[in-house]
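Submission sheet (multi-component)
Chains listed below:
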Amino acid sequence: AQKITQTQPGMFVQEKEAVTLDCTYDTSDQSYGLFWYKQPSSGEMIFLIYQGSYDEQNATEGRYSLNFQKARKSANLVISASQLGDSAMYFCAMREGYTGTASKLTFGTGTRLQVML
Amino acid sequence: DAGVIQSPRHEVTEMGQEVTLRCKPISGHDYLFWYRQTMMRGLELLIYFNNNVPIDDSGMPEDRFSAKMPNASFSTLKIQPSEPRDSAVYFCASRYREYGYTFGSGTRLTVV
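Outcome: structure written.
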């Protein structure tokens, strides 16, 4: 089974509108972390936002927020007031467990976001 | 903080040649990861180290791949001999605490 599922290969959004990128995850661990990374056309992986499984509040970082629904095992990224520079590939990732052998990040297949004028 | 530094940024080599990719993690980070990104397989973990010790190398595709971390500030990923199917972007990442994963800019490898 896929650990991280991103069902939207591509998304379009109008500039200044909000957009939600979907991510569902699968784990039996009680302690885990969820991440979103942005990969622009230049290729680097840019960290956007993190949500720990025990965090009660949804994480926010500027225009980015993570809609964390634990019972549904979803961790959707919401980008408010989209900008042209938001056009990129977006990856959801999960770290299962806390330390030791459970330290790696497992990535989804990504969603390509295109912001239009 | 210079971030995670990878070299070279681009590498073009002929099939059968040895290729060495280099990574300098962020000082103080105790985990180091090597990932490979391809269109077909996405981002896949190859190997990772904790305090310079390899912890999990189950993602290393075959014996042609090897990775070392001789000290806390340097790691290499070597492919010998290289094959066209090794063409990919190779990322190094380092981690401090359970949420602090930082990626390097990647090395784009092309094997012709």
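Remark: The first strand of chain A starts at residue 4 and ends at 5.
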